[in-house]
Every structure is written in C-alpha cells, then in structure tokens.
Amino acid sequence: MITFTKEQLSAVMCKHAEKENGLHDLLEIMLESLMVADRDEFFREWEGRNKGNGVTSNFESTFLAKKNVQILAK
Fold it and tell me: How far is CA 55 from CA 15, 24, 32, 59, 70, in A?
C-alpha cells in the first residue's frame, strides 16, 4: 500500500480533477469511502450482534482494492 503525504495527495487529486469526469470520479470515491467507514462504525457498535449477510469483510477488501487500482491506473 502506498502512503502519501497531504501535499502529495493534494497534488494527485488536483491532477485527477483536471481530467474529463475527474471531479465526478473523486466525489464518487469519497462518497463510497464514507459509506464503507459508516458500515465499519455500525459493525463496531453492534459487535457480537452482526446484522450483515456475512460478506462484509470480503466486499470491503475487494471494493478498496478496486478503488486503489483505479486511482493508480488513471
């Protein structure tokens, strides 16, 4: 996993936002990340009383892996 400084991340985001549909892509990634974080928080609060369908950890790892590949590939 690559770790960026705030300055590096800002530069990457600015460069990507300048592309066609770049801002849309960034907003989509941020919204999806917030939804994953909200789901994580929900399961932390309901530990031991899992209300999920059993695919949560597999979905998150697949989802995040796809998003990282998309960001680095563009």
Answer: 35, 28, 17, 6, 22
Taking only the tens place, the pLDDT of each residue in 15-34 is 999 999 999 999 999 999 99
Residue 44 resides in a domain: yes
Q: Which domain, by its residues, includes 69?
A: 6-73
Distance linking the first and last C-alpha atoms of the chain: 17
CA distances from 65 to 3, 18, 62 (A): 15, 24, 5
Nearby residues of 64 by Cβ (< 8 Å), 6 or more positions away: 36
**pTM: predicted TM-score of the whole model, two decimal places:** 0.55
Number of domains in the chain: 1
